[in-house]
Structures are given as structure tokens and as C-alpha cells.
What we know:
Number of strands of chain A: 5
Strand order of the largest sheet of chain B: 1-9-8-3-6
Helix content of chain B: 10-25%
Shape of chain B: elongated
Mean pLDDT of chain B: 81
Strand content of chain B: 35-45%
Helix content of chain A: 40-55%
Mean pLDDT of chain A: 89
Strand order of the largest sheet of chain A: 1-5-4-2-3
Oligomer: heterodimer
Strand content of chain A: 5-15%
Largest sheet of chain B: 5 strands, mixed
Shape of chain A: elongated
Radius of gyration of chain A: 22 Å
Amino acid sequence: MNRLPVQVLMLVVLPVVPAAVTAWLHPRAPAWAVPPLASDEVMVEQALAWPRVLWLDARPRKDYDAACIAGAMLLNEDQWHELLPDVLDAWMQREAEASDEEVPLRIVIYCDSLSCASSRDVVQRLRSETGWDEIYLLYGGWQAWQEHQSR
Amino acid sequence: MKKPLLACAVVIWTCGQVLASGSLSFPDVSRGMVAEPGDVQASHAFAFTNPGDGPIIITEVKTSCGCTTAVVKGEASQATDEGQERGDEASGAEAPATAAAPQPLPMTFGPGESGRVVATFVFGDRVGEQTKHIRVHWREADGTGSDHVTTLTLNVTIPEVLRITPRLLYWSPTDAKEAKTTDITIEEGQSVRLTGATSSTADVTVELQPIAAPGNPSGEGRRYTLKVTPVVTDRPTRSVITLTTDNPKIPAARLTLHARLVPARGAGMSEAKASKQAP
Lengths: 151, 279
């Protein structure tokens, strides 16, 4: 009797058992699939493909000072009133320098990671205070950006 | 006959393991607070006990925002600072750094021991309904169980004196350079009256008008409209508009609006480049 197919089958099937148990019970198991993005959320790859983007960092200042996306400006609710004028100036400067009116300037805001709510708060407040629609949240935040850069 | 006995043994053993293992019990995992005008932070001590038979290790405490800190305190520290800290506290001064010094984790709590997770939320420039989460990671000290997470929630309402919609008046290159308006509403329960509005530059003019409302024909005191008219339209302009009130306690930053104008394409573009860093 040829035992090879049985052994191959065992080698394929047996690892599935502990893997399934781990996936079921592990407290930090990743999600099975990326959830659908909300209309104001954007993935790193998509944001990088946009021709005109103003990046805003919603993390605390010490994290922003340590490292941030190149060209990003700081805007958080710790110092909202102090930081907002500079953001508006940069935004309007981009508008003044733009040559193609058909391509809108998009603002992309990020904080630490999926568990961070600060960027969501900043997106909502900036939309509310400016009336501007082209404001997006970077899905996965700074963590997703770093993972994308390390690929 | 043997199979039912075996099943019973497994069930009894499993139940025994669950009962023998430790757990972390928070009688209150959510707390709502309303801040007073002038408060800059709110804190709450979430009490917990270990009602199980085995020790518990709190391994990590994470907050959903850099504005919120959380420290774990045991019974010993509770006795020493009982008089300094109430269960709930909203205050007008930020706590000294020593009070928020992080407790070294992991911390072990034996059977029957209790402690607190003291969460402190520093408002910064936030207003309105704020929800901050504190995730407490813990596990049984004997290593038999998996990691657990208990999520604590701090809901704080930070009253907004004025609702200004929008706070940015923006003329894009394609917009007609005509007057724009914004609505200003005094929030319920706030005792304040607007007395005027000024612009930081002469590039725009501002005009504040009360809005009449049912039962309040003059409109005085509750709702206003601010009309902003650009005077200079051939170069980029920026103005800070400041509202004045009869209540000097309101921070000036909460009374500001912004006006920005970008001229039509081709109009004054040389000035646009020259004023790159212009205030």
C-alpha cells in the first residue's frame, strides 16, 4: 500500500488544526479581511496616487517632532487654535500656486494607528469649521504609512 | 457508560479552571462628566478588584488619545492619596507632572486585592462631546489563561460657548469675490452677548447683525450673522476676525474666525508668489 499520499495529506491537514485554533482564540488575531473604507477614508497607496495632497499629522507634538510624513503639518486638538492658521496658510498657498483647477487639493489626516481616534476628530472638526469636503482620514495612520514604506 | 462520565469530568474540570482562575472586576467601566467653563481637564478613578482565587497581572494600559493618560494604583497608594483625589474631578489647572507619573507595569494584584485606574483627560482646545477609551490589558499570573482587555470609557462634555458655522470664509480662485456670511449661535445655558467684530487687516470688512427669532423679535443675544466682504481681490489675503463679547472670561481663541482669499487665476499671481510667507 502506497503510504505517500496519506503522509502528504497528513502534512497538509495537520498544521491547519493548530492554525485554526490560534486564529479562533488568539486575542490579537488580525481581521480576516480589511473592512470596507468609509467615504472619507483613504489607503496609503490611494493617497500617494493623488496629485495634490496636504498631509496633516494629528498626533501629539512630541510624536510629530520625532518623525512624520515628509511635508506634513501638525494639526491636533491640543493646540487647535494655535496650529490652524498655519495650516490654512499652507492650504491657500497651494491653491494660489496651482495651475490645474480641475485637480482638487485633498487634505489627508493621520494619527498613530487604527486604534487612534484623534485623526477622526480632526477630520470632522476641520470639515465642520471650513466647510471643505476634500478632507480624508488615512486608514491605519502612521503605522500603515511606515509599513508601506518598509515594503 | 464511560462516555457520559468522561464528558462530565471534562465539564467539571473546565468549570473548575474557570472558577480557579483570576479575573478583574470593574463595577463601573463608563463615566460621564460635564465640564464647567474654565476647566482644562477631567479625571476619574475607575475602581477594580480581583475577586478570583488567583493573582492577576495588569500588563499594559493604553489610551485612545495622546490627550489622555491613565495610571494604575494599588491599595497602598490609594491610602496615601485618599485626601488628594476624589472619584471624579474636573479642574481648571492641569495636574502636576508628579501626579501623572506612570506607574511601573506590570503590576500584580492578589486575590481580593483592589486598585484603581486613574484616567486624566486634558482638554486642550477640544469642545463638545468627547469620548476617550482606556484599554486595560491583563492576564492570570499563573499563565493558564489568555490575555484579556477591559475597555474603560470617559465621556466628557466640554461646553462650547459659541457655535460658528463655518469658521473659515474662503474665496477660491473661481469664486465671485462677493460678501460671505457665517452664522453664530450662543449655545444653550451660556450667558454671553456679542458686542462686535473686528478684522486684523483692512483686506476685508466685517458686519455683525443679530438675527430675529420667535419670541425674541430683536434677536438680541442668541443668534447673529457675520457678513464679511473682501476689499482686496487681486492678491491672496488672510484676515483673523475676532468677536468681542461682554464676558471677558471667554478665551479669545474661541472667538476667532479666519478669512482667506485666493485671487482668480492670472490675477495678481506675481503677488501670490511674493507673499508666500506673508502673514
